[in-house]
Write a structure and sequence with these properties.
Layout: E1 4-8, H1 14-26, E2 29-32, H2 52-58, E3 78-84, H3 92-100, E4 107-113, H4 122-129, E5 134-136, H5 144-153
Parallel strand pairs: 1-2, 1-3, 3-4, 4-5
Helix pairs in contact: 1-5
Length: 154
């Protein structure tokens, strides 16, 4: 029977709440993409040109270190990959995870949380990092209620 994993990165807790709702709606396992060095409030200040998230966002080669490796994904057919949108792309920690995970043959469906940004070219950018996966454009989820209706549409 096909098995689904919800893998997510959450800097401030918003994406974590939605990820739990997505996992519940999908009957999926849940795993957090955690940075080795957690983001502070100052790190997330997008108005500060020298904040950690701003500097990482400006550097496509930035690869923040993971707290732990992605683990064995061989038992999963589908990965529902969630994250907040930062400057119309996934945070660089997601890039780190995608490059470290073995996504060959997996169907990866992206989804995001955002206060106002759209997905932009996020999925296309992630696909460059793991072209052996089948990438599916997801959407921005505006809350936990949005999660259940989105999962039922997949």
């Amino acid at each position: 029977m096909p098995k689904t994993l919800v893998a997510y990165f959450s800097a401030a807790g918003t994406t974590r709440r939605v990820a739990r709702a997505v996992a519940d709606a999908a009957g999926a396992d849940l795993v957090e993409i955690a940075p080795a060095t957690p983001y502070t409030v100052a790190d997330l200040n997008w108005r500060d040109g020298s904040s950690r998230s701003t500097l990482e966002g400006k550097d496509p080669a930035a690869r923040p270190e993971l707290a732990s490796a992605p683990g064995d994904l061989s038992g999963y057919d589908t990965i529902l990959l969630g994250f907040p949108i930062w400057w119309y792309v996934a945070p660089r920690i997601v890039d780190t995870w995608v490059e470290a995970a073995n996504l060959a043959g997996k169907r990866v469906v992206t989804w995001a949380t955002s206060g106002g940004s759209a997905m932009g070219g996020t999925t296309a950018e992630l696909k460059k990092l793991a072209p052996e996966a089948t990438w599916v454009d997801g959407r921005v989820l505006r809350g936990t209620a949005d999660a259940a209706s989105w999962v039922s549409s997949l």
